[in-house]
């Protein structure tokens, strides 16, 4: 799959194929992906950490491809949405069930969300405008997470890639302005 994305396509290009899926997201309908019966030697925290790291790495690779900051952000967000849509069992575990998994899992969730702040370091500053405060970045991340949570918790993870234009707009607008964000997000032009 291509790493390129077109602004009006509504869907980002893939940068990391998911042929093997995310560890721990095995489908009951796929016998070749089932774990053998019985206890396993892998501690639960190891599996959860591996999943978070793979997700984080996939988004970082997509973001790291050449392009303007707005293109890179859209590509990274698109990769995140595609992974969660392609792996609904993983999405449910990572986004919804994490709240019941205990303090270590919640700490991992906080660490993952905090890591997304780094993607905003290269955000352009609009001339004559104040710097966007860190709390605004945290609010953008929390807002995107809220939309993802809503989709995953209601069994609509497969719809996440279709939300890329709107979520890209939310991510980009505070930094590049509403008009540029709408264009870079692939939203339809106002008529």
UniProtKB/TrEMBL annotation:
Compositionally biased spans, kind Basic and acidic residues: 31-40
Compositionally biased intervals (Polar residues): 1-12
Region ranges (Disordered): 1-40
Protein name listed in UniProt: Tetracyclin repressor-like C-terminal domain-containing protein
Gene source species: Phytohabitans kaempferiae
Lineage: Bacteria, Bacillati, Actinomycetota, Actinomycetes, Micromonosporales
């Amino acid at each position: 799959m291509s790493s390129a994305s077109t602004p009006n396509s509504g869907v980002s290009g893939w940068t990391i194929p998911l042929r093997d899926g995310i560890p721990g997201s095995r489908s009951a309908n796929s016998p070749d992906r089932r774990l053998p019966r019985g206890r396993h030697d892998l501690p639960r925290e190891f599996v959860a950490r591996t999943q978070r790291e793979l997700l984080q790495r996939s988004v970082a690779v997509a973001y790291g491809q050449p392009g303007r900051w707005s293109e890179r952000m859209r590509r990274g967000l698109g990769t995140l949405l595609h992974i969660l849509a392609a792996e609904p069992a993983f999405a449910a575990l990572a986004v919804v069930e994490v709240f019941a998994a205990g303090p270590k899992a919640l700490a991992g969730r906080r660490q993952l969300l905090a890591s997304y702040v780094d993607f905003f370091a290269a955000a352009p500053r609009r001339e004559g405008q104040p710097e966007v405060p860190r709390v605004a970045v945290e609010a953008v991340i929390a807002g995107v997470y809220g939309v993802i949570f809503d989709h995953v918790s209601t069994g609509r993870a497969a719809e996440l890639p279709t939300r890329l234009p709107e979520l890209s707009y939310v991510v980009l607008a505070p930094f590049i302005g509403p008009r540029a964000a709408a264009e870079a997000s692939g939203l339809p032009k106002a008529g």
